[in-house]
Amino acid sequence: MTLFKNISFISLKKGLNKTRERLVNGILETFSGKAQVDIKDIDEIEEILLSCDIGSQLATKIIENARKEFLKETDRTKDNLLRIIKGELKQILLDGSFNKSEFFSYNKSPFVILIVGVNGAGKTTTIAKLADNIRKSDKSVLIASADTFRAAANEQLETWAERAGVEIIKRQSGSDPASVVYDSLNIAKSKHYDVLLIDTAGRLHTKTNLMKELSKINNVISKIIPDAPHETLLTIDGNTGQNAITQAEEFNKSVSLTGLIITKLDGTAKGGVIFQICASLKIPIKFIGIGERIDDLQNFDSNLFIDALF
Ligand SMILES: Nc1nc2c(ncn2[C@@H]2O[C@H](COP(=O)(O)OP(=O)(O)O)[C@@H](O)[C@H]2O)c(=O)[nH]1
Ligand SMILES: [Mg+2]
How far is the CA of 287 from the centre of ligand 1 (A)? Predict the structure, then answer.
């Protein structure tokens, strides 16, 4: 069953404005005033690719491939070069075949989703957005506020939960997050909620004790529901660059990640990080955040992403 599907091409396009401006307009401007692109000038777009956080390895590969392909073309206009680069970028997303527009689906009740990530990545906001989408698709959703570390976390989640119109389970700050998770799971089970979303405290992947705490939360979950969590999603700030890869690798050691959420793509020209992530990790991108409002979360779809970007 599909949990929900939320893609608006218009919002996606708008959300990717800054990256498009730098990437697409940047490439076109590099060759402005020239009727034909000189093969040797193709190297000049490397800097643009790098400034969008596409990563140096990938940038080199894209340029090499684009040059080879462009050589075979009779049409040497900048528009044709852009078409080739678009094709190269699309291929990167499609090669991560695990990314192919599989909409978020569930077959368990409660379907348990654990959200993890570093501080400020957008976990709480994303949970609210997920909750809103799930509720709108007529499924019941409960939120566990297991960020017991930050005093204001409960309040923040409450405000959001209110906006999304869903219930939340919370405890005093400072209490054991695993116990909030324990209680929430039991409530979700006994009251037959369709989905349980678990918010967690932000933690640096370099802090071993906090990473152990995540493993403990995981153990509590699987003790109550053996095959849960059904999804463990790492939230990554789209401005993170290369560090996104490190974060994913490190978190994956403590909890086995089933997917990624890349947030704040609207606020950055560095949306090229999506390509770097697809090329380096074997973890699917499930959602992207393209704004601060509750409806600014979308399912990630490779084809639509490329089309919106260009
Ligand atoms: N522009 C933009 N801001 C976002 C997005 N997602 C989250 N934020 C903002 O990022 C900040 C941190 O978000 P929060 O959910 O509290 O992060 P957490 O510490 O991981 O729970 C907040 O100001 C959010 O409004 C997004 O997709 N776009
Ligand atoms: Mg939070």
Answer: 14
The protein residue with its alpha carbon nearest to ligand 1, atom 5, reads 264
- 242-272 residue pLDDT tens: 899 999 999 999 999 999 999 999 999 999 9
**Helix (H), strand (E) at residue 259:** strand 259-263
Asked if residue 306 lies in contact with residue 14, where contact means CB atoms within 8 angstroms, the answer is no
Q: How far is the CA of 147 from the centre of ligand 2 (A)?
A: 7
Asked if 173 and 150 count as a contact pair (C-beta separation under 8 A), the reply is yes
> 257 C-alpha to center of ligand 2: Å?
18
pLDDT in tens, 203-247: 888 888 888 999 999 999 999 999 999 999 999 999 998 899 999
Give the CA distances from residue 207 to residues 203, 247, 249, 308, in Å, rounded to whole numbers and listed in that order: 7, 12, 14, 38
Query: Would you state the structure tokens that stand for residue 130, as one six-digit string?
Result: 């997920």
Name the one residue in this structure whose structure tokens are 């709108």.
136
124 lines ligand 1 (CB under 6 A): yes
Residue in the block written with tokens 């999506």: 274
